[in-house]
TrEMBL record:
Destroys radicals which are normally produced within the cells and which are toxic to biological systems. Destroys superoxide anion radicals which are normally produced within the cells and which are toxic to biological systems. It comes from Melanocharis versteri (Fan-tailed berrypecker). Keywords: Manganese, Metal-binding, Mitochondrion, Nitration, Oxidoreductase. GO terms for cellular component: mitochondrial matrix. This is Superoxide dismutase. Transmembrane segments: none annotated. Homotetramer. Its EC number is 1.15.1.1. Its cofactor is Mn(2+). Mn(2+) binds at residues 43, 91, 176, 180.
Length: 215
């Protein structure tokens, strides 16, 4: 598969450029045995692709509503824009948060920040896992950065609500806990999936995101 870099999703609405499904920087089977190839293929080529396609459709409708000055239509399109735009944003981050060479613990500034804000890496891991397990229905568990306070925070978002757009936190590490992310392999046992996913977390990417958002 292509190793092209993933591009930032959900640009300015006035742009005529349509959103596209980003290539994964690894093969669908690369994360096995922790996440199997069938899940990755369906998750990426079907679920994420649907968010991209629907986002392009709703943006076209939104631009038409803007051009007409139809505020009622603009308001009515907001939920679909949030859901599909959030799905595109969240998954674009999620793919880069995973790696066949992942796992272990972060290093450098990110590790120091984790120790400062959570006491230890083990404590951080336990808290993010607990928050992710506790998401009711579908949603995401996140490690984010609070720019105003200069500290890391853990948060959960329902459905495809994007972290930064709904909480103001800059997303560093997202864990997808929609059933489509794990059900084919882990059935309804979400804790087993969450235990496994730590083996493929791309700490190099998370550290890079942390360094960027601090600038």
């Amino acid at each position: 598969r292509s190793s092209a870099k993933l591009v930032a999703p959900l640009g300015c609405l006035v742009s005529r450029q349509k959103h596209t499904l980003p290539d994964l920087p690894y093969d669908y089977a690369a994360l096995e045995p922790h996440i199997n190839a069938e899940i990755m293929q369906l998750h990426h080529s079907k679920h994420h692709a649907t968010y991209v396609n629907n986002l392009n459709v709703v943006e076209e409708k939104y631009k038409e509503a803007l051009a007409k000055g139809d505020v009622t239509a603009q308001v009515s399109l907001q939920p679909a824009l949030k859901f599909n735009g959030g799905g595109h944003i969240n998954h674009t981050i999620f793919w880069t948060n995973l790696s066949p060479n992942g796992g272990g613990e972060p290093k450098g500034e990110l590790m120091e920040a984790i120790k400062r804000d959570f006491g230890s890496f083990a404590n951080f891991k336990e808290k993010l896992t607990a928050v992710s397990v506790g998401v009711q229905g579908s949603g995401w568990g996140w490690l984010g950065y609070n720019k105003e306070q200069g500290r890391l925070q853990i948060a959960a978002c329902a459905n495809q609500d994007p972290l930064q757009g709904t909480t103001g936190l800059v997303p560093l590490l997202g864990i997808d806990v929609w059933e489509h992310a794990y059900y084919l392999q882990y059935k309804n046992v979400r804790p087993d999936y969450l235990k496994a996913i730590w083996n493929v977390i791309n700490w190099e990417n998370v550290s890079s995101r942390y360094a960027t958002c601090k600038k």
